[in-house]
């Protein structure tokens, strides 16, 4: 796909809020100007996933263009096996054997997850001549172990003549020397690992091996030291059980945000502020020793065994809702909550409560195992015994998370409707059982668990979006604002995603303190477990430019006997509602 000349500017806001790539143009005060000139360092053996993904995305924007590929000639001189042997020669044959056994683990997992994530089969999936982009070949000087790359004066001079604004490191090697300082915005690189707990590699392995619930990535400007670099963007997704599936997921998830970062640099004319630097204690991780490989394989076997047993005995994740009457949610004792029995072959989840006309009603997702679809049901808890009122809102697509709020004297609901590709607002025509579609607030969006609330004279929307199109709604919390609750124009927050961390990004409810403070209930994800727990965060700052929250507590599922999951909690008019889950045998 040949690149074309384009014009861009720097004053138009950029957001990944909709999760849909759209061609955008930029203007400054003087009118059209040239796009950000980006170079990518690649190996002659092929372009890695981040590199060719950026090339594809650059064709959808006027903000930046890929002006050149800097091709490192290293593959012909030293093959992968040569580098491997050179690296382990000083450590003996046994270490070489560990490299080979780990390679075997990867080959097995390529078969298991290759169809789901094609990049897992080969991270270098595009030839360097696949695009009509000017190429400059360089011959970096390698260190003795083949890890550190430095460029000669002749190569540096040729690179300078390309007049690039910024370079993305997509090739192998640890760069050192003048190459890191000759561009206005430096050399940027995507590192797949949480820089505070896990540096080194292989990407995605150690989190799966050690049972770390999240796997992170950082985009940083490189500095002339091995562990350094200014972190400009970071995020964390829920860890997948299989190493290669985890590695591929973090690659796919991080790619859209390199594109977003380049757009922000183009818009602002500067790099974003770097994250604060903190001490790092551990040496970088590397190819695991035999003990770690055995530990990892044992963990996988145990997980596969549990999964097989659940399948044999027809045990599935089943949720239950519960409630209690308590004046303030801060004083609640969760184990005292009263559970509501599930209908046969179904479960109730995501409860929200509302009181009106002397009636106390819980609205919840009503999921049918036979159809695999959810509707919104109502349960009257006014008396001593809960009374199931039946389904009050049903669509051709799945509905859940019936978030409720009041505006203009009427009751509204924003249920999850991501299968429709919309955020939809429903109005209560007759409490509690008659609802009608009031308006589609945002179209062409992949979002779940939306909450709308007023604050400081504006309406705010917190929702979970998957920017990478991989059905991962646990990692990103996005914020929008508007002048009305049913506005046609919701403005994305410039800090989106305002939270990028699977341990606390996904919404689980809303609470209000006695002092008027707003608290966001969040879900916590486990390895291969949806809704492993929940927590409460106090929103400390909320305006058009800044969002900040402080986690005040986390909640496990052990408040209910035998519970293994929990992910929703809210409180209104002296009634607290929540849910929890277990693996149960489901029979038709």
Describe the secondary-structure layout.
Blueprint: E1 36-43, E2 47-48, H1 49-58, E3 64-72, H2 80-88, H3 93-113, E4 124-126, E5 135-138, E6 141-142, E7 148-150, H4 153-160, E8 166-169, E9 174-175, E10 187-191, H5 205-210, E11 214-221, E12 230-238, H6 243-268, H7 290-312, E13 315-325, E14 338-339, E15 346-356, E16 359-368, E17 373-380, E18 387-393, E19 400-407, E20 410-416, E21 422-430, E22 434-443, E23 447-455, E24 458-465, E25 476-482, E26 491-492, E27 499-500, E28 507-512, E29 518-526, E30 529-542, E31 547-555, E32 565-572, E33 575-585
Parallel strand pairs: 1-3, 1-8, 3-5, 7-9, 8-10
Antiparallel strand pairs: 2-4, 6-7, 10-11, 11-12, 13-14, 13-33, 15-16, 16-17, 17-18, 19-20, 20-21, 21-22, 23-24, 24-25, 25-26, 25-27, 28-29, 29-30, 30-31, 32-33
Helix pairs in contact: 1-6
What gap, in angstroms, lies between the N and C termini? 52 Å
CATH class value of the largest domain: Mainly Beta
Order of strands, widest sheet: 5-3-1-8-10-11-12
What is the helix fraction of residues, given as a range? 10-25%
The CATH homology group name of the largest domain: Glycosyl hydrolase domain, family 43
Whole-number tally of structural domains? 2
Q: What is the count of helical runs?
A: 7
The proportion of strand residues reads: 35-45%
